[in-house]
Amino acid sequence: MSAKQKMRHILDTIAEMFPDAHCELIHDNPFELTIAVLLSAQCTDETVNKVTAGLFQKYKTPEDYLSVPLEELEGDIRRIGLFRSKASNIQKLCRILIDKYEGEVPASHEGLIELPGVGRKTANVVMSNAFGVPAIAVDTHVERVSKRLGAAKPDDTVLVVEQKLMKLVPKEEWTLTHHRLIFFGRYHCKAQNPQCPVCPLLDICKEGKARMKPAVKTKNKGKKLN
Q: pTM for this structure?
């Protein structure tokens, strides 16, 4: 099958597995989503949601984050990895929002990536989830799954993975595909102990087949001994 046919098979299969895939970061507006995604770098969504449950009650606007000393904000997000640099970036980000965007999160990819702590992935998440602009944000799950299933090469950069997915996936499905690939990677095709024995995509996964070979050899040896 062609690359696009293979991707169609992958998308349809994952859609059946995770029909309700969605952004798991809890937020009520673009500003909260931007803060949540910034905090999620090298941290689980579950931990971020626990922290933002209280954080978003205390801080409602960019002005609120700037009204407290940096040390206080650091304490509020201390459970998050890299909390010191993230607290600093949040305050710098809020200052820019106030000075340049009247306190609102810019609804453009270019405007978002200029904000401290906001990279391409964060900008894509905000654009797609907050503003409805189709985008594929490549996090660790999307990158891992894409490479394991052959949609990208093992040594491809995150940007190259994103570009390849954008070519293979219909634009109207970019955002949903992003969520489904994350769910597939987070709950099925995990970094450690992926569920290869019950994976419906094992037939097109070279890494999965390689993982299964030792188990097959072990079974065969057992049969010979009997």
A: 0.87
